[in-house]
Amino acid sequence: EKITRYDYLMQKYPNTPVAQKALNLKAQILFDRGEYENVIAQNGVEAELIDKSYYQILSRALQEKDCKAIAKDFSHYKKEQFTFHQNFTAFECLYSLALNAQAQVAIENLAKEAQDPQTKLSVLYMETQNLDKLGKNKPTLLSARDTLNLAKGLKQREYYDVGFIFFRHLILSNNLDEATQVYTFLHEHLSDDIRLIDVELELLKRAEAEKNEVSIEVYARDILRLQQLHKNTHGTPYVDFALAQSLMRLGRYNQSLEVLDSLAKKDIEVPTLAQALYLKGSVQKTQNNEQDARLSFNQCKELQSNQTQQLSVWKNLCTQALDILQ
After folding, report:
1. Which residues 6+ apart lie within 8 Å of 126 measured at CB?
2. Can you give the pLDDT at residue 15?
3. What Cα–Cα distance (Å) separates residue 117 from each residue in 124, 146, 241?
């Protein structure tokens, strides 16, 4: 057999042109047989044949959607050798394995090759997700903006949720005006999406810093609505206290008490309950309802928890408030 002959020549004439020629001829036979891994395993084979072997290995992996094989040999992946669909398959595989840096290599500029707007939208959407996972703010921002604008133009609602990524990166870029516009769009089209809580929490914090009482109430009440809708307490107790204290500042004491009573019924930590009772007693005292205020302060004072340091702060305040009422 020819391979046996070539092995003999390589052994008999090592480190000579004869041996190199024999090696290349052996490698070519292996390549023609489809034994690409064996080609690569031969030390000293010409680079062109090695590249061709990797191309064949990767092409087979892409056809079979063998994600682990694609990842294993991706350092030899030459994007320009593959079709649009092959590159997107490579991206999907690498993305599924959380190999986001490699996935970005596969999808970079791929949207420009898309044959139609719908395909372009799908690619842009996935690239935005990947860039977000890589933590690349500016590229994510640009990709998310393009994705959302195209989704709007095509009226493809299933892609509208890219706005959540877009919003987050606008905030990171301190572009509050555009972030607010994106929020308005999300609230109009995805008003019941639980992810809206994080968006509104961010806006609530800014409204609180500016003491914008109208915005505080709008964001806080919608967060509470979403919590109830999804049977979720994400954002509590921050949102509850923000709304209750805003209502107190506006003199809307009964509504403030309603918020605090609702908070007390949630699954909250004991120090948080103590804070709620202290604020409740303070509101009742402001209303000249000393009897109920004493009851609230006493309930606060009697609370027990292993979170002693946090709890003691509010218990001390409740004790001092009771002393003043005596």
Report:
1. 91, 92, 95, 107
2. 80
3. 10, 12, 46
